[in-house]
Amino acid sequence: MNGKIIKGIGGFYYIKTDEGLIECKARGKFRHKDIKPMVGDDVTIKMENGKGVIEEIHTRKSQLIRPTVSNVSLAFVVFAVRNPDINFDLLNKFLILCEYNNIEVIVCLNKIDLVSEEEREEIKKRINVIGYEVLFINAKKGIGIERLEEKIRGNITVFCGPSGAGKSTLINKLSNKEHMETGNVSEKIGRGKHTTRHSELIDVADGYIVDTPGFSTLEIKDLMDKNSLKYCFPEFTQYNDKCKYRGCLHYKEPNCALKEAVESEEVNRYRYEFYIRALEEIIEEEKNKW
Ligand SMILES: Nc1nc2c(ncn2[C@@H]2O[C@H](COP(=O)(O)OP(=O)(O)OP(=O)(O)O)[C@@H](O)[C@H]2O)c(=O)[nH]1
Ligand SMILES: [Mg+2]
Ligand SMILES: [Zn+2]
């Protein structure tokens, strides 16, 4: 029988199959192979003495570490326009993380009730120029979520963003249920705690969604090597092969097409500077390894 792991708790996995939800243990052999079933995995299971056992894990299309979910194909990157204020460095890190994992991105600007129209348009523009779709939403009231429902279909979608952005509120609206505990922003920051703790797939609009505990730090340098970084900036794509030097990192090399594009304001300077900061961190990290 085939199915999909939608939840894992204390060594048990819950598999959604045509015959309903089945509780399974993993076969011992996985432990030796250093492979552990993950939420999101498509699996083949078997019944043994009335108990479910995971026999096989099908090849993963992608694998996220935080949250630990496989086969994710879409991300809603959720940031509040206010309370907490939008942190563009962190937003960039989430965007890079998604690009690195080949995950399509939609940026959701939440809590639009808290700022003026001009203010939100200003923020939207900064993200649009990179090439991402940006939606204005009010998760609390369920405003602006139709497009999200449409996109969820056929995907495993992760919600990522800082604590207090409104991810769980949005999920509750999309699923019409109070699946997720939500919390007060000042309480969260005060206690330094997250409301959301474990990942599980929730069935919504013919797709699956995953809530993610918000986090405020994310290290690009732990993720990739210096040559991979430039491919995580979609607006660099058309320049990546136009520099004088093959494998140009757009750093200190002369005759760099990307640096020229920054000079002529075709590429946003803040994004380029962010790229350089991340690149320098990776280079520094690589030095320490040798
Ligand atoms: N004004 C306003 N407040 C909102 C909106 N959406 C969510 N909130 C509030 O923001 C607070 C945080 O929302 P959560 O959904 O818990 O945030 P989260 O992103 O899940 O946070 P973590 O689980 O800690 O990562 C709650 O008090 C929500 O009621 C909105 O559109 N407008
Ligand atoms: Mg939450
Ligand atoms: Zn270059």
Overview of the molecule:
By secondary structure, this protein is of the alpha/beta class. About 30% of the residues lie in helices and about 25% in strands. It has helices at about 30, 90-100, 115-130, 145-150, 165-175, 185-190, 225-230, 255-265, 270-290; strands at about 1-10, 10-15, 20-25, 40-50, 50-55, 65, 70, 75-80, 105-110, 135, 155-160, 200-205, 205-210. The longest helix has 21 residues, at about 270-290. It starts with a strand and ends with a helix. Bound molecules: guanosine-5'-triphosphate, magnesium ion and zinc ion (ZN). Guanosine-5'-triphosphate binds next to helix 5 and helix 6. Magnesium ion binds near residues 167, 168, 180, 195 and 196.
Largest sheet: 6 strands, mixed
Q: Rg, please?
A: 21 Å
Which series of helices and strands comes N to C? EEEHEEEEEHEHEHEHHEEHHH
> What structural class is derived from the secondary structure elements?
alpha/beta
Bound molecules: guanosine-5'-triphosphate, magnesium ion, zinc ion
Give the percentage of residues in beta strands.
15-25%
Helix-residue proportion: 25-40%
Please count the helical segments: 9
The outline comes out as globular
Residue stretches low in confidence (pLDDT < 50, at least 5 long) are 188-196
Mean pLDDT: 89
Q: Span from first to last CA?
A: 48 Å
Strand order of the largest sheet: 10-9-8-11-13-12
Number of strands: 13
Assembly annotation:
single chain
